[in-house]
Amino acid sequence: MKNKLNGAWNAFDALSPRDVHDLLKLRQDVFMLEQDCLFPEIDGKDPDTEHYFLRDEETGALAGAIRLSSSRDGAIRIGRVVVAQSHRGLGLGRDLMLAGMEKARQIAPNGEVHLSAQAHLEKFYASLGFRTVSEVYLEDDIPHIDMIAAL
After folding, report:
1. Which of 20, 48, 53, 146 is most buried, judged by most C-beta within 10 A?
2. Beta bridge mates, 145
3. What angle do CA 53, 31, 35 make, to 5 degrees?
């Protein structure tokens, strides 16, 4: 049974120092250490994105996070979808994506949302309405695909 989780959107500049620490630590733990991938996790994009956090109410731990950005041409992009190992198997990836898609709808009701997905998660994202729009390519030595969903 999952603990109660609180979800909230914040611009990067509204995040507390603890939030920034927890976000970078979670992404480092999953993307770099767990996936054994050395890449520039701090990519300079966070300050220009909205961040959605799911925090465990009982422990205060960051259970998952996602970021959302919009470009000048109106394209909405979801990225850095991450769930803590301690909270996997609870459907939080779906919860994060649904929150991201709802936020994207608020920004661009008739637009599209784009993402670069790890290829092994193609079926998961397809279940949320995403369609594959690229061949598999390597990003930081991990197979990825580009996917788009209409809002």
Report:
1. 53
2. 117
3. 140
